Amino acid sequence: MLNNNEYLNKLYRSDQPLIIYKNSNGFDVYTDFSKKYLINKKNIKNFLNIQTKKKKSNSNSLNCYVGFFGYKLLCENIGIKFPKQKTNNFYNGIFYQPLTKVRIRKNISIQSLKNNFRNIKIDNKKYSVLNKKFDLNLSLQQYSKLFDDFSKNIKQGKTYQIKIAQTYSKKGKVNAVELFWKLMKMNKSPESFLIRDKNYSIISCSPETLILKKKNLIKTKPIAGTLRKTKSLNKNKALSFFRKNEKETKEHNMIVDMERNDLSKICKTGSVKIEKLKRVEEYRDLFHYVSTIKGLIKKNITNHEIISSLMPGGSVIGCPKISTIQLLNNKEKNDRNIYTGSFGVIHSNGDMRFNIMIRTLLNFKNNINLSVASGVILGSTAKKEYNENYIKAKSLLELFH
After folding, report:
1. Alpha-carbon distance 230 to 287, whole Å?
2. How many structural domains are present in the chain?
């Protein structure tokens, strides 16, 4: 019989659907999915309030659904209508119910409700990625026009801050597991994950936690502020830069206020507090300006109310959320797809953890797509924000070098 290491290596080399999710101690691998729940605007409420609460065993770690909500679905869920946009018709959202969970820590341990879970067939599928560079949907000139249009909206008081998305794309099919572990060696971000299914894969090194809920305590960790890493910079110098930079400070304060407001909708009066204000987190190519906000959830608040209050995450859209989303949707020609949606896990006891899907590759229909965004605010310039987008995409783009 295969030992745990051998089983895991064989699982990676198979074409069996799986999910890998980073946590603070290592990685969790979910597989042998008993259910695959396709989410849309008609069934999202039922899924969150009824399906996710159903237990299938005495194992708490396997009484869960793991998956994602796309950006458009999250907008439609809060009543926002969309104009026609160019789309690849990817799924609105999918959640999987696992029968097997592999815990990768110092050692590998496996928990499974499936008797013959070690019986896996090796897949000899070939992968091909064209060597040509990624195409970018917006040139600097096109980006600058959008930037100027949104700057006028800000001056007119229609929004205070807005995030323009750009998409890198190329043809090809990737070996998702191989690419994911290569990415983890380069940039092991706290909300990294992989989904590999029969007809698509998603690979992410997302840094942002949108929801962390345990019992009635809920936290969110907005990121607003990016600084390119250089040899002369360290975390203290980066913190000094953010504090002295009026544009970065304004942007961060607005997002923190918005996330506090989102939490206040579902939390007890007076319980929403800033746990950590304006800290710097260090990554491979950049520094981020981050705060942590927490609150105590009111009694009888449903999963659907929590998701509707906090998603889509404001830090990757702008402020105020609803009017800014409407401005974005009318200007962006391509749909955002999974970008700025949310990936995570919901347990039957109500605990949940979700990120914001940024720094994320989608491989679907022989296309590889990666979207990034940076903020338009009075005091910023189109060229600076355009270049900041490249810094955010850099670690994923370099996977193909």
Report:
1. 10
2. 1
Distances (CA, A) of 172 to 191, 336, 358, 391: 25, 20, 21, 23
Task: Dig out the tokens for 77 from the structure.
Answer: 């869920």
Distance CA 243, CA 358 (A): 24
Q: What is the pTM of this model?
A: 0.94
DSSP-based helix, strand, coil % in the chain, nearest 5: 30, 35, 35
Residue 325 lies in a domain: yes
Q: What is the DSSP letter of 298?
A: P
Q: Report the CATH number that the domain containing residue 8 is assigned in CATH.
A: 3.60.120.10
CA 23 to CA 348: how far, in whole Å? 19
Residue 356 DSSP symbol:
-
**Cα(338)–Cα(71) distance, rounded to whole angstroms?**
6
Give domain status of residue 106, yes or no: yes
Copy the structure tokens of residue 386: 């355009």
81 CB-near residues (< 8 Å, 6+ apart): none
- For residue 370, the enclosing domain spans 4-121+131-400
- Inside any domain, residue 126: no
Is the distance from CB of 96 to CB of 67 less than 8 angstroms? yes
| pLDDT tens digits in sequence order for the chain, 401 residues long | 789 999 999 999 999 999 999 998 999 999 999 999 999 999 999 999 999 999 888 888 899 999 999 999 999 999 998 888 888 999 999 999 999 999 999 999 999 999 999 999 888 777 777 667 899 999 999 999 999 999 999 899 888 888 889 999 999 999 999 999 999 998 889 999 999 999 999 999 999 999 999 999 999 999 888 888 888 899 999 999 999 988 788 888 988 999 999 999 999 999 999 999 899 999 888 899 999 999 999 999 999 999 999 999 988 888 888 989 998 888 888 889 999 999 999 999 999 999 999 999 999 999 999 999 887 877 788 998 898 888 889 889 988 87
Q: What is the DSSP letter of 297?
A: B
Q: How many CA atoms lie within 13 A of 18 on its CB side?
A: 24
**In-domain check, residue 348:** yes
Of the candidates 271, 318, 324, the one whose C-alpha atom is nearest the C-alpha of residue 295 is 271
Cα–Cα distance for residue pair 152/135, rounded to 1 Å:
28
107 beta partners: none
Letter for the amino acid at 370?
L
Sign of the torsion angle spanned by Cα atoms 304, 57, 3, 11: negative
- Rounded CA-CA distance 149/151 in Å is 5
